[in-house]
Design goal:
Blueprint lengths: L14 E2 L6 H6 L5 E3 L9 E5 H16 L6 H16 L4 E5 L1 H7 L3 H24 L4 H9 L1 H5 L2 E2 L10
């Protein structure tokens, strides 16, 4: 986990998404969520969370969303690619670098990250957990209808910001 004094030496890249923090990334950052120093930007706008718990929630939701998209080959490919990449990049922590996204949408990036941690991420996790429990069908239908916006990110081992030793 990044600290005020140093960044982790081994960084595994997950994905990039354009113009917002997608549902998939909010779920990955959904458990043990804490604000940490960014590894890229000067303000304290990084978010760290428990990787295994977030990946499990995202995987469960992807499979549930897929139950309504059985004939969508593009979605099936998205699930396969996401699941394989998350397994390959498994780590103790998931670090969400929010700098570009909160800079686009907020005058104060620090306040934007605080809002993500205090409201947006917990709300996304609660909705996903409720859907998995069979208690949030309307939200699930909306996610299924717009799955590309929520899950179709650029998954790769080397992203725009990568730290290789």
């Amino acid at each position: 986990m990044p600290t005020e004094d140093e960044n982790p030496q081994a960084i595994r890249c997950i994905s990039e998404h354009r113009w917002d923090v997608p549902l998939a990334h909010k779920l990955m950052a959904g458990y043990g969520t804490t604000i940490v120093p960014s590894m890229i930007w000067n303000p304290r706008i990084g978010i760290a969370a428990d990787y295994a718990s977030g990946a499990a929630l995202l995987s469960d939701l992807l499979h549930l969303v897929g139950q309504g998209l059985e004939d969508d080959a593009e979605f099936a490919e998205c699930i396969d690619k996401t699941t394989a990449h998350l397994e390959r990049q498994r780590a103790r922590y998931f670090i969400l670098e929010t700098g570009e996204m909160v800079s686009i949408t907020d005058d104060d990036p620090v306040a934007g990250v605080q809002r993500l941690v205090a409201h947006d991420i917990p709300a996304a996790v609660a909705r996903a957990e409720a859907a998995i429990a069979g208690e949030n069908d309307d939200w699930l239908a909306s996610v299924r209808a717009d799955w590309q916006q929520h899950f179709a990110s650029f998954y790769n081992d080397t992203l725009y910001f990568s730290f290789h030793g």
